Amino acid sequence: MLTKLHRLQAHLLANQTLGLRDLPTMCRHLVKTVLSATAIVATTWVTAQAQTIPRYDHVVIVIMENQSADQVIGNANAPYINSLAKAGAYFSNSHGITHPSQPNYIGLFSGSTQGVTDDSCPKSFSKANLASQLIGAGFTFAGYSEDMPSVGYTGCSVAKYARKHNPWVNFSNVPAASNQPFTAFPSDFTKLPTVSFVIPNLCNDNHDCPTNTGDTWLKTKLDAYVQWAKTHNSLLILTWDEDDFQVANHISTIFVGAKISPAVYSTNINHYSVLRTLEDMYGLSPIGNAASASAIVDPWGTVSPPSATPLTNGVPVTGVALTKGSSNLYQITVPAGRSSLTIKTTGGTGDADIYAQLGTAPSTTSYLKKSDGSTSVETISITSPAAGTYYVLVNAYASFSGVTLTASF
């Protein structure tokens, strides 16, 4: 059974994300599974409601590179990132705007890709942007780029610095003094500007180097700020520019800091949503595509668990039957240290599909694992599952009956 929120979310996603069910049956089995979400412990389902976004003293936004959510969340080579996701608000349905990298950075910063469709350098704009808005309203802004050699540097590349990942340098209405090397990032966090961006170099952002490299860099360089932020009305936003060119451009976005309600949030967001949130936070008029995006309010809202039928480890549920288009939601709690979680349907006739998610109810477009073959015999397996409550959606692509559902770990 789907909650009203879940049905609303599914409707909204249908207008923004291509689902495999929209493809012909023969074709959809050739498409790579692209949406993968969380492997972190959370047991709350977020309900939408009007909320006031708190105004933080400091917000630091860190942008990593070219990894889909399923390459990061649940990855043993990213323990620090996963600890942030567990400690904060993890958005399991977050998306980049486009490909390649540069237009995503520009879009997050200015509400528009400004017509950019490539990574070429240099670019030049004079449109309103987050920095010009903040400064104009009496707040402060800085961007800190690793390996950039000097304040106000406008070159396209040096060492492992790439201007394509530094959007503010392209805007003539952003002071050169706001364009800082990462060596200038203050150790006294009270001296941070109101909003700042941190851009790791091409290795430490995982563009050119393995996941554990970026994970270690984040912990070494920014964990002190994260811990300080929790008790000093400040926030870290960790996001990725784009995925690895999968269909849905599914990325990870994490909010961690003061006043955050830790949970997995399934609200559909993108870079324009993040920009709109920052603009609302500081009373700024939304610009470009941020004007039509919804601000993110979930981490400051309330939570309640979804209604789901409990499953017992290894105990079959027999006689499952659904009509086309309907679904049932189940849940199973997996203890720590298990090598795998297997969920399967057997027997019966028709087409029963399985979707699983940790901590929150999955949908047919947002899930950790899925099996959507064309029969009633389906299996999904999650290797080294994180401890927590997994929700299992059994969906009837075609009516089925006489099916047995079993979950075991």
UniProtKB/TrEMBL annotation:
<feature type="domain" description="Peptidase C-terminal archaeal/bacterial">
    <location>
        <begin position="327"/>
        <end position="395"/>
    </location>
</feature>
<dbReference type="InterPro" id="IPR007280">
    <property type="entry name" value="Peptidase_C_arc/bac"/>
</dbReference>
<dbReference type="GO" id="GO:0042578">
    <property type="term" value="F:phosphoric ester hydrolase activity"/>
</dbReference>
<dbReference type="InterPro" id="IPR007312">
    <property type="entry name" value="Phosphoesterase"/>
</dbReference>
<dbReference type="Pfam" id="PF04185">
    <property type="entry name" value="Phosphoesterase"/>
</dbReference>
<dbReference type="InterPro" id="IPR017850">
    <property type="entry name" value="Alkaline_phosphatase_core_sf"/>
</dbReference>
<keyword id="KW-0378">Hydrolase</keyword>
<dbReference type="Pfam" id="PF04151">
    <property type="entry name" value="PPC"/>
</dbReference>
<protein>
    <submittedName>
        <fullName>Pre-peptidase C-terminal domain-containing protein</fullName>
    </submittedName>
</protein>
